[in-house]
Amino acid sequence: EAQVTQNPRYLITVTGKKLTVTCSQNMNHEYMSWYRQDPGLGLRQIYYSMNVEVTDKGDVPEGYKVSRKEKRNFPLILESPSPNQTSLYFCASSFKHLSNQPQHFGDGTRLSIL
Amino acid sequence: DAKTTQPPSMDCAEGRAANLPCNHSTISGNEYVYWYRQIHSQGPQYIIHGLKNNETNEMASLIITEDRKSSTLILPHATLRDTAVYYCIVITSGGSNYKLTFGKGTLLTVNP
Description:
Helix content of chain A is 0%, strand content 50%. Chain A is mostly beta strands and 114 residues long. The A-B interface holds A 4, 33, 35, 42-43, 45, 48, 50, 56, 58-59, 88, 90, 92, 97-100, 102-108, 110 and B 31-32, 34, 41-46, 49, 51, 91-104.
């Protein structure tokens, strides 16, 4: 089944403890992206990647890192998490970074930073 | 990207067609209209998209007016599982990135 898989789905952790949220897609998509969703603020893009080894900042990249060493994986790294990074995170992918290519989302990761 | 306007909420009876409107009066000629939905904090689900012509897939139909200033998403036979927030967005063609920016959307409630 074609899908975008995120892990973990839920995580409660403490300030400063490095964590990684994994994202994997099995559709051979070139474009991948991370979003966070907060009440009243909607969906905001954190980072995106147009292909392997090509990544760039979105609208809210501060406090996050990403890497794209393989086409299928696009992990989101929080080196020193802080409470303001408590949020619902979504990974998305599309075949190409073109506006006529729909993005498909994972089921989300709910992070709580205490 | 052009802004969109949607009603905050709508109700629909199960088994009936749900028609969700969207205004995008400032849309440009190269901007696509996309519809996504989100069921209670699950990942947004792609439904359908179009540029000028009406489109239909296994989930829904998209009707775009001739002047492209508005569109309607049609769920032909709504079920209880179609209860969700529906987002209409427009995406500009070209450029090195396209991000999805969801507004408040329309909460569709399908009633038994």
